[in-house]
Structures are given as C-alpha cells and as structure tokens.
Amino acid sequence: HEKNVSHHRCFDNFVSWLYSNDWYACRHVVILPNRRQALVEFESLEEARHCVTSTSSDPVYVGGQPAYCNYSTSQKIARPSGSDDANVNNILLFTILNPLYPITTDVVYTICSPCGTVLRIVIFKKNGVQSLITFDSVPSAQRAKTTLNGADIYSGCCTLKIEYAKSTRLNVYRNDSETWDFTIQGPVGWGSHGTCERLLKIGYIVCFGSLIVGP
C-alpha cells in the first residue's frame, strides 16, 4: 500500500520505479488518485516485505515527494470485469483505435522499446489495425501494458488498447514495415531505417503512459 502518490502524471514514474527493481515482481497496480494512494500486488509475500522494509529507510520519491509504503488490509486486488490477467505472457496484442497515421514496425518499436527489449513485431489489418509484440520477458510485457494502455501514439488519435495475446509464439518470416524479427539481422537492419533518429529530430517524445507529439 503506497501513500502520497500525488499527481496522475507521477503514476508513470511510480510504475517505472516498481518495474525497474529486479527484486520486485508486480502482478497488478491500481492508482487511487483521489486518495493519493496506490495498491501494488506482488508475486510473493517476501517481495512485499522487501518493498516495505527497503522503502522505510530509503523512500522512493514520486513527483518530488516521498511515497510511504505499508501493508494493505487487502489480500488481493480486485480485477475489473473482463480482465485478461489470467492470460499473462510476454506477447501483447495492440489494437490501434482511430488510426489516422500509418502504423509501422518502426513506430511500434519506438513506443515499446522504453518498456523492455522487443523481440518481434507483426502488424495486421484484418480487424482494423492491430499488432502483436513479443517482449523478452513477462515483466517487460506487463510494464508495456501498464504504461501504454490507453495512450495516444499521436495527439488525439492512434489510441492504444492493449491486451495479453493468446499466442505463445510469434512467427516472423521477413523484416519490413509490417513484420520484424529483432533477433535475426534481416536484409535491411533496424539501424539503417533511421526512423528512431527521425522521430527524435521532429519532436516525438516518448514517455510512459502517453506520447506527446510536437516540435
């Protein structure tokens, strides 16, 4: 139970701190903005104890304010109806709502890479615009889902709806604008695209939770 988690934008920093600590494996995080609190469910009691003990002497700062950690009276965080947490794995399904701009492997990689190592990307357009992304680990996928779900890739459009995929393996047969396997060097390497560099030059700022577009 984390107290003094103040402004809603500080949520991104708080989640980033949780997932950046290798000794914490978080199952679920719920922010209570009106109470300036957050509930964090860990994989084990030992991890919860470690969090409480370590932050008592070395508190984490969220938005410049210390976040106080203590045990909650809740044994489990209630999931919303229709939650797909039972299907947790390292592959995510992105549905891009209101896709006014092209969505390519370059774009998907750019928004996902801050959350963890991206292994494979497949974009398909059978039911609108969707993408399957394989991360190197379940924590990386959890971080991406928590921080990017509901964010806009471009201001006011290309909104991300993120779910855990039912697939356990993503097959990629070529490296191009719609599919890419980053574990295999294709005929045109990622670095030669230069898209990341171009995005930075024209002012795309990647942040946890949302993408801000502008010079």
UniProtKB/TrEMBL annotation:
Organism: Eptatretus burgeri (Inshore hagfish)
SUPFAM superfamilies on file: RNA-binding domain, RBD (SSF54928)
Protein name: PTBP1-like RNA recognition motif 2 domain-containing protein
Entry's Gene Ontology molecular function annotations: RNA binding
Alphabetized UniProt keyword annotations: Repeat, RNA-binding
Database matches in Gene3D superfamilies: 3.30.70.330
Pfam family name, one: RRM_8
Domain PTBP1-like RNA recognition motif: 87-166
